[in-house]
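Changelog-adjacent note: as of this version, every example in the card shows the full chain rather than a window. The one below runs 266 residues end to end.
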Amino acid sequence: MRVSRCVSAVLALSGALVACEPAEVDEMDASSGAQGTTGDADETTGMRPDVGEDAYVPRCTTPVGHTGRPRTIAEAVAHIEALPEPIDVPCVLESFARPLPVLASSSVFSAQPGQGNQSPRLFVFFDGLILSFATVGHGAQLVEFAEFVGPTTTVKAELELPADPATIDVAAAVTRIQDQDFGTVCRLCHRNEEPSDEIYPGSFASDALAPRGDTLVELDEVRMHAASCDPREDAQRCAILDAVFLPGEVIPGEFDPQIQTIFDYE
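Full-length structure tokens:
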């Protein structure tokens, strides 16, 4: 939602595991196999090998007293605040209830720009609330919130992680995007911004925007990129993708067809 980054993006565009019988191995091979459960990538294929590692155990699960499916900014912030430290973006993502509705976009029109199909922007859908995440760049440290207050209008907020739980609250998320002059830094891309103090003090509501259809990335492709991600090359990107796909089922999410894209503005 940062204006400078939105402008820069606009200017830039202008110019089943298969069961099998275990092979007989000697003690040395067995020992090597046990050590190979760290997720190192195969040097030939780039894929992290299936070596029979233990079932995935998430570091962050849905906090007690929360549903894992927040419907408002307030519920989402409270959910995040209750997570175990360090509270970072991968922790937030893996703590959500499954199945998790996700849409991926390579669009650069955002403070959280996608950077190709391998590093898309991710939208997570809940009833009345959309959260968005980048997989690379500065935006990969952000959680962006859009709470619907009308069919095509959302109140927006943002948190930068990791953060001390004591600093995480709705006021911090709302004021982080406020502009020095008036409104929020989201207003260049999201038009028709108006104060929405009745919802959250200091908040503003504006047009919701969806990514253009030709920027969407199929979930199967994103899952493939997650499986081949090498944490030695980009630990944050791999951690975010793992946090989306490893804890449980991911299903396609979608925007309401009424919601326009930035290219629909006249």
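Structural remarks: Residues 1-47 have pLDDT under 50 and may be disordered.
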